[in-house]
Design brief:
By secondary structure, the chain is an alpha/beta fold. It has 11 helices and 18 strands. The protein folds into 2 domains: 229 residues, TIM Barrel; 99 residues, Lyase, Ornithine Decarboxylase, Chain A, domain 1 (Beta Barrel), CATH 2.40.37.10. Helices cover 30% and strands 23% of the residues. The radius of gyration is 24 Å and the shape is elongated. The chain binds pyridoxal-5'-phosphate (PLP). The site of pyridoxal-5'-phosphate has 10 residues, from strand 9.
């Protein structure tokens, strides 16, 4: 996407994503975790991320919609592609065979539609069954297994490939018992499938479980946030588990103006910040239209020439103000970093997420909507 109205650029260091994949591969034991690249690779660029990870040994890739899978195929991607959200619309069902997409399936209605289509196909479609073991979002349950076995056995051009489930609390060290209960339910589902003669591979581990629950690695794992350098255990006693991960997204923009703010003067809408003494402010070309949330008003910091500068007053649509008092040589046209940056002043994704009142996942997805540069 190209945005003409803004100056904000997300800079993606693809080498760091490769580094993180190697860290996760080593942790996973089995070697090649499934690379989760849904939502435009968490804002990092679908095709670019898929390409470098294929080069790093990834064999299976998980996108969100079937449409996203088709788009990835359109870039020449030849590896296994899973659509985590599964088919929703007619065109998406047809695309499963034509584009070679493994769907996550979570309802009997989806199986009905596949049963209607499969007879006309020349090829066998591998599918993944999604089981609910505690997330309570999407998925079949243990009670569904006998009916599932019957339906799958009746189809000629649909074959069970993998079974999956998703953990609700793998990144919370104090919630181990919930993880254990989900794992136990998943094991029961797998035993039932095996007893009914349905061979399959299985995965339940997300990034947090790859790093923190080696007992749940099973046949494959699904690596998401950690690929992009987000530490799932940040702020917990298990934080060291993610210490080797490197953030891959930095976000920069330009300074538009630098001027004085005398003691008693205010800056930006609502006059929420009033200078207690003479200050120098830089007006920065970033605002909520660039996904730099208004909730960062008066809370966030940016990185300028390796130093931290605080945001003063309200974040506007395309601008905000930072305090550059005492800094030499700050000029209109200078780069300033909303995320990342040089040296000690570098802003981590976890810090920005905390000021924002959210998690690194949302920070990456939203800031990744800006134009991107790959380095
Ligand atoms: C997004 C997603 C993942 C990746 O989770 P992370 O916490 O980012 O590692 C794994 N599995 C499913 C089904 C997902 O939707």
């Amino acid at each position: 996407m190209s945005i003409l109205y803004n100056k904000v650029t997300a800079v993606i260091e693809l080498a760091n994503i490769v580094h993180n994949y190697q860290v996760l591969s080593a942790a996973s034991g089995s070697g090649a975790p499934i690379a989760v690249i849904k939502a435009d690779a968490y804002g990092h660029g679908l095709s670019q991320v898929a390409q470098v990870l294929a080069g790093a040994g990834a064999e299976t890739f998980a996108v969100g919609t079937v449409e996203e899978a088709v788009a990835l195929r359109g870039t020449g991607h030849a590896h296994r592609v899973i659509a985590l959200l599964g088919p929703v619309e007619d065109a998406e069902y047809a695309a499963l065979w034509s584009a070679g997409v493994i769907p996550f399936l979570h309802t009997f209605e989806q199986l009905d539609r596949l049963a209607q289509l499969e007879k006309a196909q020349d090829e066998v479609l591998p599918v993944a069954l999604k089981f609910d073991t505690g997330m309570r979002r999407l998925g079949f349950t243990l009670a569904d297994v006998p009916a599932l076995a019957e339906r799958l056995k009746a189809m000629k051009n649909v074959r069970l490939d993998m079974v999956s489930s998703h953990l609700a609390t793998a990144d919370e060290p104090e919630a181990f018992s919930y993880v254990a209960a989900q794992a136990e339910e998943f094991a029961a589902i797998r035993r039932e499938l095996a007893a009914l003669g349905l061979a399959h591979t299985a995965n339940i581990a997300n990034s947090a479980a790859i790093l923190g629950h080696p007992d749940l690695h099973l046949d494959q794992q699904r690596a998401g946030i950690a690929l992009y350098g987000g530490n799932p255990f940040h702020g917990t006693e298990r934080e060291a588990l993610g210490r080797d991960l490197k953030p891959a997204m930095s976000v920069k923009t330009k300074i538009l103006s630098v001027h004085g703010l005398r003691a008693g003067q205010s800056v930006s809408y609502g006059c929420t910040y009033t200078a207690p003494e003479d200050k120098t402010v830089a007006i920065v070309a970033a605002g909520y239209a660039d996904a730099y949330s208004r909730s960062l008003s008066g809370k966030a910091q940016m990185c300028l020439k390796g130093r931290r500068v605080p945001v003063l007053g309200r974040v506007c649509m395309q601008m905000c103000a930072v305090d550059v008092t005492g800094m030499e040589g700050v000029r209109a046209g200078d780069d300033i970093w909303l995320l990342g940056g040089d040296g000690e002043g570098r802003i981590t994704p976890e810090e920005l997420a905390a000021w924002w009142g959210t998690i690194t996942y949302e920070v990456f997805c939203l800031l990744g909507l800006n134009k991107r540069e790959f380095v």
